[in-house]
């Protein structure tokens, strides 16, 4: 189980690094996108955007420090649950807000994002519930590599889905 925890930590940490960096690169664009996704009072848009970016940036830091890894999994789970809820509400209300999860995108939020975030929340919960043991270095490297591959697939998820949607 220590490999599962290490792989989940790698996956969740790398996904949040990619998400936080993309939002920091275009913070104003991310902040402007929030009202289209969720009902936010105009005065709270920028503070909410800042809270999201800071929380996303803190999550990977917590995940790589063994005494506080469980807090990283918990924060990641809470963020993913909040994002999933916001997307579900937007989809239910018929809002076609673009997904700014990993930078500028014209892809509107939809069921695929609910599936992606639910899977990530599951991985955060699984990692958080696994026993906290540091695996041997070789096993840690393999688990981290598996997390890296998973993170690349998650960050590229919209592109992969669009690629297969066009070919069918």
UniProtKB/TrEMBL annotation:
Locations listed in the record: Membrane
Keyword Transmembrane: yes
GO BP annotations listed: methylamine metabolic process
Entry annotated with the keyword Nucleotide-binding: no
Name the UniProt record assigns to this protein: Methylamine utilization protein MauE
TM segment ranges: 44-65, 72-94, 114-131, 138-157
Domain of life of the source: Bacteria
Keywords: Membrane, Transmembrane, Transmembrane helix
Pfam hit, one: MauE
UniProt membrane topology term: Multi-pass membrane protein
One GO cellular component, as annotated: membrane
Ranges where the Methylamine utilisation protein MauE domain occurs: 1-129
């Amino acid at each position: 189980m220590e490999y599962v925890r290490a792989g989940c930590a790698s996956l969740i940490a790398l996904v949040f690094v990619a998400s936080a960096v993309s939002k920091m690169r275009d913070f104003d664009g991310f902040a402007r996108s929030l009202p289209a996704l969720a009902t936010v009072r105009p005065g709270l848009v920028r503070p909410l955007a800042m809270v999201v970016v800071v929380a996303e940036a803190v999550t990977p830091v917590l995940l790589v420090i063994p005494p506080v890894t469980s807090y990283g999994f918990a924060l990641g789970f809470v963020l993913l649950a909040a994002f999933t809820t916001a997307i579900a509400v937007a989809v239910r209300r018929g809002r076609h807000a673009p997904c700014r999860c990993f930078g500028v995108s014209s892809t509107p939020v939809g069921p695929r994002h609910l599936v992606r975030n639910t899977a990530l929340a599951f991985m955060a919960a699984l990692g958080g519930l696994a026993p906290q043991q540091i695996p041997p270095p070789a096993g840690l490297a393999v688990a981290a590599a598996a997390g890296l591959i998973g993170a690349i697939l998650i960050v590229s998820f919209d592109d992969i889905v669009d690629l297969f949607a066009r070919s069918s």
